[in-house]
Amino acid sequence: MFFDGMPGDWRPLPLAQAAQRYDLGEASYDSVHLADLFGDEPEHFHVHSGDLVVDGPLALGNMPGEDEDTVYVVDGDLTVHGPLGFRNLDVYTSLYVTGTVAAHDLVCLWDSCLFVGGSLHVGGLLATSLTDAGHLVVKDRLTCPIWLDDRGRGAIYVDPEPGTRFLGAPDNPLRPADAPAEDIAAALRAEFLAEQGHVDVDEIHRAVLAGRPVLR
User: Fold this and answer.
1) pLDDT tens digits for 177-195?
2) Are 163 and 141 in contact (CB under 8 A)?
3) Tens digits of per-residue pLDDT, 83-117?
4) Whether the model pTM is above 0.90
């Protein structure tokens, strides 16, 4: 399932009403719409009204056949007291938070679709490795001390606070203009490097959720 043990009162909302109230086109700067995510498959909205606080770690995401095509909406702020991991593979189940998201660490992998109507506050590491279909959209500011991105792909629209440390290739199109690129291999612990220096983002995901250190 998309989330395991998420608290709160989640209620289904009729598609026509939800699609108008929670417009993913507007939330994504017109990057993606419901039909782009789900095609002719049935779409479902489940909404949590009001702020949501979760004792982390919180793991989101699913694999094909594990959940119906669904948009989960937190109509308010989402605060995770711990790490947050989001990993979709060949499915586009989405999370739309109309307010602010705060977490100790955040990992977004592959086809994850996270839309934030307010700010995103990450206390430690933000790690992204998205496909072209993946989304991380933050309408207000991104606050995080360290951002690691090893692919330079995905629809990532963020405005990092000045001083964010960026780990990635010098030609990575996501690199903030005011941040020099730092070599990922030099910053990571050895266990997160696969053969030929490739980054093992799945192992980073597991480590962050387990509270294990990732950087040297």
Assistant:
1) 999 999 999 999 999 998 7
2) no
3) 999 999 998 999 999 999 999 999 999 999 999 99
4) yes
